[in-house]
Amino acid sequence: MLIKEINIRKMKMTMKAPFTTSFGTFQDKEFLLLEVTDELGNTGWGESTAFHSPWYNEETLETNLHMIRDFLIPLVLDKEIAHPDEINELFAPIRKNNMAKATVEGAIWDLYAKRNQLTLAQALGGTAEKIEVGISIGIQQNVEDLIELVRGYVAEGYKRIKVKIKPGFDVDVIKALRDAFPHVPLMADANSAYTLDDIDVLKQLDEFNLTMIEQPLASDDIIDHAKLQKELKTPICLDESIHSLEDARKAIELGSTKIINIKIGRVGGLTESKKIHDYCMENDIPVWCGGMLESGIGRAHNVALTTLPNFILPGDTAGSSRYWEEDVITPEVVAVDGYITVPTSYGIGYEPNIEVMDRFTVETFNFKE
Ligand SMILES: O=C(O)CCC(=O)C1=CC=C[C@@H](O)[C@@H]1C(=O)O
Ligand SMILES: [Mg+2]
């Protein structure tokens, strides 16, 4: 397939509710959508999961725009590409910038699936017809608000509840949640808010039967996580520390993690996500699909990836209505009783809603030979 045209949309959408983590609070989501068109007029869509500011990792909307426009598009525009797996290799000379790479690669995967009359799930080798989904809740003002939010999501049937913790908002909060919901699958995401000095606090979490503690320590660490895992009963799940198959291999060999949160953007795309999935399956490390508050385009990619067999834990891909008054796809992603039915249309399986997209597009960039 020949990529003949690439369009980038700078988007700004207001989320239904502010999202707070140990880094800060935001409600407006500014991000990039990217559309590729081939020589036959087929199109594919990708979404950059980089935030407007570098609080989750070093990438931002603007660094992604720069990398995509100035380095990645020249490598793929008007180039013959037989399979999206080639993109990983094409982009290898460019260091890091994984979210930028994943934006372009994801759009080409969508295009490839459509050209070959496959769903993206089928193109990736996934077979699940529905996926279990959990819900991730940002830090709330107080425990009572958090408990009421959790009560609502449990009633909606979400298969796992993920809450944020940070020093001073941890043991008491988890205890209150466990008292209120003795049996709900419950996990905590610390987003690197702790150090090994906090080991006694983290060990107290062992008594609450959490399914995992996500990224308790530094975002670039696997050494201290290995030391911590030896002291904890609760499985550690790594998110920010894992950027590639090599990172996953080293973390598993060191015993730094027992579960991996795969985020397509963080690891550089669907091909690398699949490699990490396969390696973890060979090593009995379950994986789940993390979220980055995506619009429907990125959400659709997450659904397709989650159909692979080792995605045995509910991920963070909730329905569109959790985040958006209106999503940029039709139909929207819908979770019913904690399940999302995998679409059967070709490619990502959802149609871009251009009318809605146009309303939330701040700026566009067009590239063609
Ligand atoms: O997309 C979702 O609903 C989950 C979002 C989410 O939990 C996260 C997104 C980005 C950084 C963190 O706050 C957290 C995570 O680390 O998984
Ligand atoms: Mg996380």
Structure in words:
The radius of gyration is 20 Å and the shape is globular. It has helices at 61-76, 85-90, 98-115, 120-124, 143-155, 171-180, 199-204, 223-231, 245-254, 270-282, 296-305, 354-360, and strands spanning 3-21, 24-38, 43-47, 130-132, 135-137, 161-164, 186-189, 213-214, 236-238, 259-262, 287-289, 329-330, 339-341, 351-352, 361-368. The longest helix is centred in the first third of the chain and has 18 residues, at 98-115. With 369 residues, it is of the alpha/beta class. The strands form four sheets. Strands 5-6-7-8-9-10-11 form a seven-stranded parallel beta sheet. A four-stranded antiparallel beta sheet has the order 3-2-1-15, with helices on both faces. The chain has a two-stranded antiparallel sheet with strand order 4-13. Helices cover 33% and strands 22% of the residues. A hairpin with a 2-residue loop joins β1 and β2 (24-38). It has two domains: 3-118 and 352-368, Enolase-like, N-terminal domain (Enolase-like, domain 1); 122-341, Enolase-like C-terminal domain (TIM Barrel), CATH 3.20.20.120. The chain starts with a strand and ends with a strand. The structure holds the ligand O=C(O)CCC(=O)C1=CC=C[C@@H](O)[C@@H]1C(=O)O and magnesium ion. Magnesium ion is lined by residues 189, 191, 214-215, 239, 261, 290. Its EC number is 4.2.1.113. Its cofactor is a divalent metal cation. This is o-succinylbenzoate synthase. Residues 143-235 form the Mandelate racemase/muconate lactonizing enzyme C-terminal domain.
